[in-house]
Amino acid sequence: MGKRGVLVIAHGSSKRDWVRLVDDAVSLVALDAPVVASFLELVPDRSIPVGIEALKRQGVTHLTVVPLFVSSGSTHIEEIGHLLGVKRETRLPMEEEPLEVGMDVHLCPAMDDHPLIVDILAERARDLSSNPAEEALVLVGHGSDVAGFYERWETGMRSLAGQLQAKLGFRQATYAMTLPDNVRERLLGLATRYRVLVLPLFLSEGYFTRVKIPARMQGVQVVYTGQAYLPSPLVSRWIEAVVQEAWASGRQ
């Protein structure tokens, strides 16, 4: 068998702090293989082709790709699969041609409802909670207005809400999305009956956690800090886990 390597792909941001959080998480990944982080956009000289070439220079022939995205319902997962030649047929129009990767490629799943992601959210929820039996937890994600992708968002978020309710004992646990936008409606329906805790399902803090979601909460009594998945050491552990699962299954 050839040499294994890992390419972690995140969306990217023009904000240095956002990129630094991703790089910090990737730097803490402990695997018996070289690990490189790349970005879909907005980060100069850190594109997917640049990451692939960096791994090739280290002799990598078998590439395990980790999409650092909250949900497999993200259309960016489809884009990544197309670029890497993993998805020959896509459900969305693609402008770019597939890359000449020159390696055997396996694409891991997104974060979704992985047990380590549940642990991250449980930690965030505990920080907000005072009496779970009288509280309602609302998970807020980006979502999608594209058929097929919305359903994947919903499946993952429903599972997360159910697991967190069972784990922490909330009176209710549900979810809402900015696409299609049902955040305010969901919060208003709960705020008259419970102390409402709101957790954003976002990799790192940014426009959605600081501006878009708070705008939908105006005038509604909720508990919200906007804390995202990063920084958390469990993100690094999640990367290790999905890669090791792929290797153990013989897919790489």
Automatic annotation (TrEMBL):
<keyword id="KW-0456">Lyase</keyword>
<dbReference type="InterPro" id="IPR002762">
    <property type="entry name" value="CbiX-like"/>
</dbReference>
<dbReference type="InterPro" id="IPR050963">
    <property type="entry name" value="Sirohydro_Cobaltochel/CbiX"/>
</dbReference>
<protein>
    <submittedName>
        <fullName>Sirohydrochlorin chelatase</fullName>
    </submittedName>
</protein>
<dbReference type="Pfam" id="PF01903">
    <property type="entry name" value="CbiX"/>
</dbReference>
<keyword id="KW-0479">Metal-binding</keyword>
